[in-house]
Amino acid sequence: MNKAEFIDAVAAKAGLSKKDAKGAVDAVLDTITESLVKKESVSFIGFGTFAVADRAARTAKVPGTDKTVEVPATTVAKFKVGKALKEAVSAK
Question: Where are the coiled-coil regions (predicted)?
Fold first, then answer.
């Protein structure tokens, strides 16, 4: 499912126009992004938690060669699945 299909599904479930659903979805995504930029986590009980984590610099080996490269430290977004979502997905 891509973003447009997701917006259509939200509009249908919530009884909203596609324009209103797009606004709501964009607002949610923007709010999550802004929180992660501030290094704050966003939790939805039962669904999951969006958080940021720091990855240390490391040396990595290039597959198929003996060459190594330095991978710089970085900050990444992570998602930890909540119990209810995990159970819903594994039940199917």
Answer: none
Handedness of CA 47, 45, 17, 26 (dihedral sign): negative
pLDDT digit string, tens, across residues 42-88: 999 999 999 999 999 999 999 988 899 999 999 999 999 999 999 99
pTM over 0.90: no
